Amino acid sequence: MAIIVSFASAALAVAAAMLGPVAAQSTTASCTALKPSYSAPSIASGYTAAPVATGLFKPRGILFDTEGRILAVQQGKGIVGLTLNDAGGTCVSVKENKTVVENKDLNHGIALSPDGKTLYASSSEEVFSWIYDPSTGTVGDNKTLIKGMKNSDHVTRTLLLSQKMPGILLVSRGSADNIDEGVVDIKISRSQIKSFDLNQIGDKVYDFTNDGTIIGWGLRNAVGVAEDPTSGAIYSVENSSDDLYRLGKDIHNNNPGEKLNFHGYLNGTKTAEQGGNFGHPQCYAVWDVNDLPEHGNLTVGKQFAINITETVNDDFCQKERIAPRLTFQAHMAPLDIKFSADGKEAYVTFHGSW
Ligand SMILES: *[C@@H]1O[C@H](CO)[C@@H](O)[C@H](O)[C@H]1NC(C)=O
Ligand SMILES: *[C@@H]1O[C@H](CO)[C@@H](O)[C@H](O)[C@H]1NC(C)=O
Ligand SMILES: *[C@@H]1O[C@H](CO)[C@@H](O)[C@H](O)[C@H]1NC(C)=O
Ligand SMILES: *[C@@H]1O[C@H](CO)[C@@H](O)[C@H](O)[C@H]1NC(C)=O
Ligand SMILES: *[C@@H]1O[C@H](CO)[C@@H](O)[C@H](O)[C@H]1NC(C)=O
Ligand SMILES: *[C@@H]1O[C@H](CO)[C@@H](O)[C@H](O)[C@H]1NC(C)=O
Question: Could you give the angle at the alpha carbon of 154 between the alpha carbons of 73 and 42, nearest 5°?
Fold first, then answer.
């Protein structure tokens, strides 16, 4: 099992592979693994890690195509395809490096259809698709699928193509500000994850605001979105606000918590969470309860109000807004979530605080 991680600032990719109980080290002699140019991250026991590729420009979304090629979106540049020499374990290096799409507007989102023959990517404003040939790593002409997503501040548009429900594409659009007052109005389609049915698109171009179905709203910036491969459950990880006050007290060092949210299923079975409001900008998840003035019986993960009024208060936040399934320390900045193939584990990357 290997996990490829992209480091936007260091422009490097790293593979971590779990070793069996009797890990064979014999490949290390012939391995010409790259040495990290940065101080290497520490690795949990049972894992090893090594860089796979250098020379990337702001790599963001990454995936494997059906031939085992890495496709990586380089923010402000396009999509690169990397075929690999694989000598086992973490001894993986680039064999061939080829430009797949050259476009400076692409900035994060990437997805492949379950048959591996349609490639999707996003800019801040639009979602595109291409017919993709995995045997050559080349694309045909692009098609615009969704438009109308432009806003300031949070400009990435994470894409998740359901593997359970073919043709259903989820798109995550963040807020236009640290605290985006506008998004209390559901018709302002920022801070939302929406689903779009590509089976029905024909020659249309969907408009993000007027088309699609709301999977969740009140999401400040849900950059990571994933589907549990066994149940089809949809989860997101959400980067929450900075510089918050409650009742005039600065609470920003240890609140609010960052979030892992549950969004229900795409197969038509309804849950209370699906289409619900997750809080932004009125309600936030508790991390350090003792740091919150008038915390009453709040506990970690419960939603609290920052500006307490008769109508918008902790009670409202708990009854009318959906609490996270997991809460992380303030400012950990989760940016992606991936499931193992059996759906029994999820992996979350964290950017970490400023
Ligand atoms: C791919 O090749 C280009 C052109 O030689 C180079 O600038 C870039 O750094 C290479 N990228 C990777 C990931 O090897
Ligand atoms: C789509 O194709 C048009 C026409 O060739 C091109 O101008 C545009 O840059 C392409 N967009 C993307 C995202 O590749
Ligand atoms: C949708 O998926 C859930 C979880 O896997 C399952 O419990 C439910 O029965 C499914 N609904 C339909 C209509 O298939
Ligand atoms: C995450 O939130 C922090 C503020 O807590 C902000 O500085 C950072 O830019 C955000 N990153 C993303 C990707 O939303
Ligand atoms: C909370 O109150 C502050 C100070 O009056 C204001 O600047 C901010 O916009 C309010 N936030 C919300 C979500 O109402
Ligand atoms: C504490 O919880 C109880 C029971 O859920 C509720 O009735 C009460 O209003 C809560 N108190 C505060 C201060 O939130």
Answer: 60
Is residue 86 packed enough to be buried (19+ CB in 10 Å), middle (13-18) or exposed (0-12)? Answer: middle
Q: Is 94 in the pocket of ligand 1 (CB under 6 A)?
A: yes
| pTM (2 d.p.) | 0.92
How far does the centroid of ligand 1 lie from the alpha carbon of residue 108, in Å? 19
In the chain, helix, strand, coil percent, each to 5?
Answer: 5, 40, 55
CA of 65: how far to CAs of 18, 68, 126, 183, in Å?
Answer: 21, 5, 22, 36
Tens-place pLDDT, residues 71-92: 999 999 999 999 999 888 888 8
Please state the atom number of ligand 6 nearest to the C-alpha of residue 294. Answer: 13
Peptide bond into 229 cis (omega under 30): no
Q: Return the amino acid letter for 269.
A: T
Q: Where are the beta strands (DSSP E) in 228-282?
A: 234-238, 245-246, 249-250, 258-262, 276-277
